[in-house]
Amino acid sequence: MLISAFAYSQNSGSSSMRADPILDKVSQKLSSLKKIRYTNIRELNYSSENYRNISNWSVYYDFQTNDTLTGFRYQIEDSVLKQVFNGTEKFDLNKKARTIQINDRPDKKSFSSISALYNSISTLKNVLPLLINDKTAIKAAADTTINNTPYILITVNIGKRRIQNSGRGFDVMTTKNNFIYKIIINRNSNLPAAVLQVNDLNNDFIQTSFANIETDAAALPELSWYYSTYTNDFKPAAEKAVPQLLSRGSSAPEWELQSYNKNEAVSLSDLKGKVILLDFWIKNCGPCIQSVPHLNELQHKFKDRDFKIISINSYDSREEVSWFCTKHNADYPVFLNGKPVAEKYGVSGFPAFFVIDKEGKIVYANTGYNASIQSELEQLIEHAL
Description:
By secondary structure, this protein is α+β, with helices and mostly antiparallel strands. The protein has two domains: 19-236, outer membrane lipoprotein receptor (LolB), chain A (Clam), CATH 2.50.20.10; 256-384, Glutaredoxin (3-Layer(aba) Sandwich). The protein is 19% helix and 34% strand. The chain is built from six helices and 21 strands. The chain has helices at residues 19-32, 121-133, 286-301, 318-327, 339-344, 371-384, and strands spanning 35-46, 51-62, 73-77, 81-85, 90-94, 99-103, 138-146, 149-157, 161-163, 170-172, 179-186, 192-199, 205-214, 235-236, 256-259, 265-267, 275-281, 307-313, 334-336, 352-356, 362-367. A twelve-stranded mixed β-sheet has the order 7-8-11-12-13-1-2-3-4-5-6-14, covered by helices on one side. The protein has a seven-stranded mixed β-sheet with strand order 16-15-19-18-17-20-21, covered by helices on one side. Strands 9-10 form a two-stranded antiparallel sheet. Helix 3 links the parallel strand 17 and strand 18. It is globular and about 70 Å long. The relative contact order is 0.13. The model has no long low-confidence stretch (mean pLDDT 92).
């Protein structure tokens, strides 16, 4: 059951309660577990970016292992995917495509992108001792009630750090906001019921809720841990070739795009004789947002010269693009339905930038955005003009 994210955030509690002893009880409880099964519900709610998503997984952890990569075996399953790590091999079963993808030599990075591990019970198992011993974190404890059930609310402000997926450390962040974690603990069992990750600048949050917890769950069939069990029903997934950006010196492919806010279409041939900066982006992309002020600067700096920014959204709706441009004050031409163009140019990540010279040749191609790209783009545009 998904807990309303802020139903408990304003409750006050006893000032005599201390966070560390409570966290220590939870830590001891989690450390004593040999196995656990539960339903994991995660809500991403970034109201500042007009984005919300809810995911739901069935999770099974077996902590009875000497594996040094994660400290546990797991089976994680939703309606589409079953993910298994048996302590040695890691494999994914796509239930719709009936394919299996096997990684027989996973490393620690292999687990960093698994959504069901984010702020999970395994994360808490590892990070609680660190939080207890962290003298810089600001911690508080309070009584709270959710759906007429008493809980304890632990609030931990760890500043400009974020708990790693594994829970074995913290990532230092460059954001303006501090990272605040609200841990909801069942008074009777000392087990966590939810983790709410918030910040002190806006109402964006990530909430992970743990329901239907079974600490005495039956062991899963031993054969279910081995990929060989599934090979009759699941065929190997074909490796997809990663698209490569068109190289410098190649001719820029033709395209025609529709403006998001004007009843007009523009093609590459319409801009012959101009230096063009192509900006491929999507709405839910931090570096894309970070690039907007610099693109505005380029638009202003070169507005009276033979230069044109063509900002191409790959697949967001007109309404979402309009929201993004208004929210982030994009002051340059933005166009819709750019996925076919992105494919022509070999774009697989965002943002991606191309500079096309007056002869229609690509003189710059890169994915990502950082401070070094700013100066490089300006110099290239100036030289091409």
